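Hi C.,

You asked whether I'd gotten around to modeling the 90-residue construct. I have! Everything is below, sequence then structure, no commentary in between.
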Amino acid sequence: MATEPDPHLSMVRQVTPHTPEGCEECLRLGSPWVHLRLCLTCGHVGCRDSSPLKHGRAHAHVEQHPIVEPMELMEPGETWRWCYAREAMA
């Protein structure tokens, strides 16, 4: 059975990270983060769900920008995207 492509992929743009050094909100607050997610609609950099404040998810819901990818790759050649709206890989 074929899986339908994620309809939110149409929101993906060529973006530049606003704050490549860390989570935008955590940097302002002085809060720690665990791994970073790049919004592929606007370039917002937020922390992932295992971080205390989950700014990546908050941004996705408030701004309606659901598609993110990791800022730091775990393995060479690793690429993936996550859709917060569908709670699935995009």
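If it helps when you're writing up: Residues 55-63 form the longest helix (9 residues).

Thanks,
B.
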